[in-house]
Amino acid sequence: MSRFDAGDHIRVKRRLYAHHGIYVNDCRVIDFSGGRNIFEKPKALVQARTLKEFEGKRGGAKNIEYPGKFLGGLGFWPGPEWKYPPGEVVKRADALCRVAATQGAYRLSGSNCEHIATWCICGTYESKQVRYVHAGHAVLGFGLLVALSRGPSTWRSPLMALVLASTAVTVYMQYEAWMTPRRWRPIIAKVEALLRESDSEGAEQ
Q: Are the CB atoms for 144 and 162 separated by under 8 Å?
């Protein structure tokens, strides 16, 4: 008996991050993957793999819950009422898998495997991993500004370099967050066309 149900959002831990996908059955997990390492992620595309391949050597995939809050209630997160029925989740994932245009659309901070799994589940582009990075980066930036204003003058040059680097990272992450819906709009349009076609064929039968 399988550990998961069709339409589950599952996650498996990697060394520095968690990888996400949509479970269909033990022979089919749909995820946004590809490339042998993080530098080859631009080659990733939405594709189907077995659960064993998805889990990799470490194994231990887990089901993802949708609690409706983030960081203990400090932020919004989709709740269970946002979730599509399991059959609809599978249809969305399958349709996305059939759209070959997903190749080249991967972005670590704007459209990664978690964004895609969340979209299949409830139609939103969300990634807790990216949110945690944003939160950590905000704390780091604040700490750098405090150190720059209160630290000794000998710290000023290296701290200023770190502040500028932090600002550049912030601009990049915000740009990716802004561009993601634009980048995915034509892809999602194709997916929705496939879903409508599937619904009309089902109605005719």
A: yes
Q: How far is it, in rounded angstroms, from Cα 142 to Cα 158?
A: 16
Closest CA to 195 of 88, 86, 85: 88
Q: What's the DSSP call for residue 21?
A: E
Residue 96: phi, psi to the nearest 5? -65, -35
Look up the pTM and report it: 0.79
Nearest to 19, CA basis, from 139, 106, 135: 106
Most confident stretch, 14-18, 26-30, 171-175: 26-30
Element (H, E) at 200: helix 156-204
65: DSSP letter:
P
Q: Which two tokens stand for residue 42?
A: 């631009």
In the block, tokens 């990697």 appear at 14
Q: Name which of 190, 27, 35, 174 is nearest 104 in CA terms.
A: 35
pLDDT in tens, 105-142: 787 777 888 888 999 998 887 887 777 777 777 788 88
For residue 28, what are the β-bridge partners? 25
Please give the C-alpha separations between residue 47 and each of 30, 33, 158, 191, 199, in angstroms, as whole numbers: 6, 7, 44, 14, 22
Q: Which stretches of 8-152 are DSSP H helices? A: 51-55, 86-98, 113-122, 128-150
